[in-house]
Design brief:
This protein is mainly α and 139 residues long. The chain contains four helices and no strands. It has one domain. Helix 1 packs across helix 2, helix 2 crosses helix 4 and helix 3 runs antiparallel to helix 4.
Length: 139
C-alpha cells in the first residue's frame, strides 16, 4: 500500500478546480438575473468584480483539491478509474453541495426552481471535475 502522490494530487485538484470554475462562469447567465433580483428584494447586493472572481477561483481550487484527495484515498478501496471518480464525485456532492442547497431551502433565500437548477448544475460540475482530476492523478 502506497501513499498519496502529492504532486499528482495537487495537479488533479487544480484541474478539477479549474473545471468547476469554468463551468460556473458558463452557467452564470442561466441564473444571475433571478439571483440578483431576489437579493435586491431582500435589500442585499452582490458585486461581481475582480475580487469576487478571484475569491471564486480560490474557492473552486480548494473544492477541486479536496475532491481529488478523496478520489486518491478511495483508489485503494474501489480501484483507479472513472467508476471510482464517479462514486467519489457523487458522494462528495451529496455531502458537501446538497446540504447547502437544503439549507438555502430551509431559510427561503432562493426559489425552488433556482435551487433545483443549482442542484443539477452542481452535480454535473462535480462529476465532470472529479473525472477530469482523476484522469490527472496517478500513484
Amino acid at each position: 500500500m502506497s501513499g498519496i502522490n502529492v504532486p499528482r494530487w495537487l495537479a488533479g485538484g487544480v484541474v478539477a478546480g479549474v473545471v468547476i470554475f469554468i463551468l460556473e462562469v458558463l452557467a452564470m447567465p442561466l441564473y444571475m438575473d433571478v439571483m440578483q433580483s431576489r437579493l435586491t428584494e431582500l435589500g442585499l447586493s452582490m458585486q461581481l468584480d475582480a475580487g469576487a472572481y478571484a475569491l471564486g477561483a480560490v474557492t473552486t481550487l480548494l473544492v477541486g483539491v479536496v475532491l481529488i484527495f478523496f478520489y486518491a484515498a478511495s483508489r485503494t478501496r474501489f480501484g483507479a478509474g472513472v467508476r471510482t471518480a464517479l462514486i467519489v464525485s457523487v458522494v462528495f456532492y451529496a455531502g458537501a453541495f446538497l446540504p447547502l442547497m437544503i439549507n438555502y431551502r430551509m431559510i427561503g433565500l432562493y426559489s425552488d426552481h433556482l435551487l433545483a437548477l443549482w442542484c443539477v448544475q452542481g452535480l454535473i460540475e462535480t462529476v465532470i471535475a472529479g473525472v477530469a482530476g482523476a484522469w490527472v492523478y496517478r500513484e
